[in-house]
Amino acid sequence: MDWWNAGAKMLHSGVKEDDITQHIVPHPSQAARPVDDANSEPIVNGAYAPKMANETAKAELGRATWHFLHTMTLRFPDKPTEQQSQDLREFFRLFSLLYPCGDCATHFQQLLIELPPQAGSRKNAAIWLCNAHNAVNKRLGHSQFNCTDLDSTYDCGCGSDTIDLATINPSQATGEAHIM
Fold first, then answer.
1. What is the mean pLDDT of residues 85-109?
2. Distance between CA atoms of 130 and 84, rounded to whole angstroms?
3. Whole-model pTM above 0.70?
4. Which of 101, 135, 136, 148 is deepest in the core (most CB within 10 A)?
């Protein structure tokens, strides 16, 4: 278990919350020199994966991913600790690097710069993700999702612990803007 604790300290060390681009775009030495030149592809635009050519698989991956992400934010603590908030922001930073669709990952990195993750509460995280999802939908020419319908659309069956999103305006999600 010591390796896990050491890794967690390394993961959070040196993170500057006021400089998101430093953490999305890899250091030039990392991008230019993969760990194993014979078996690795270089990082492109901060994303580890190449572009997905199969549009059907890409769409299916997107739907499954949004379902997972919405369910995750709807299960986030109502009053998270600073560590939990930091972990959620770090999750989205890493997600934007590791997502298996390279061009999607690059677009999501840009979205994180324009719309930094809100991790001060479950409500803020859920509304932030809904707004991010709608920004992606707009870019793709898809219809906008009503953010007050999140609980019913993304009910995981995990329990009755829900939030009342019908009483809030998605454009007025409160809380500090946290940048990874």
1. 96
2. 20
3. no
4. 101
Distance of CA 85 to the CA centre of its chain: 13
Hey, which residues does 47 pair with through a beta bridge? Answer: 44
In a 10 Å sphere around its CB, with 0-12 CB exposed, 13-18 middle and 19+ buried, how is residue 28 labelled? exposed
Among 120, 111, 105, 87, CA closest to 20: 111
Contact status, residue 112 vs residue 23, Cβ threshold 8 Å: no
Count CB-CB contacts under 10 A for residue 155. 13
Closest CA to 169 of 113, 114, 134, 124: 124
Which of 3.90.580.10, 3.40.50.1100, 3.20.20.140, 1.20.120.310 would CATH assign to domain 18-172?
A: 1.20.120.310
